[in-house]
Q: What sequence folds into this?
């Protein structure tokens, strides 16, 4: 059930705009206390929508090590 990829935010570059949070079909990404976006990797299905919408280009897609 777990996807092979998940999103990870570069906190230093995130500008807390919240655009990614509106794109996520799984409600897996939120801006933490107005500081930076955080991904719940358990919910993330690796669709990449947040990455494509991020104006700061600060979301990377990572491979899950335990993926089968
Ligand atoms: S990759 Fe898809 S599921 Fe994961 S946080 Fe981004 S928009 Fe949500
Ligand atoms: S879209 Fe990018 S810059 Fe905006 S809150 Fe999400 S990760 Fe941060």
A:
């Amino acid at each position: 059930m777990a996807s092979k990829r998940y999103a990870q935010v570069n906190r230093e570059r995130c500008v807390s705009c919240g655009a990614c949070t509106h794109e996520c079909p799984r409600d897996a990404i939120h801006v933490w206390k107005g500081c930076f976006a955080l991904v719940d990797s358990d919910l993330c299905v690796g669709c990449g929508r947040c990455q494509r919408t991020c104006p700061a280009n600060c979301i990377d897609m990572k491979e899950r090590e335990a993926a089968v």
User: Anything to note?
Assistant: The mean pLDDT is 94. The chain has one domain: 5-63.
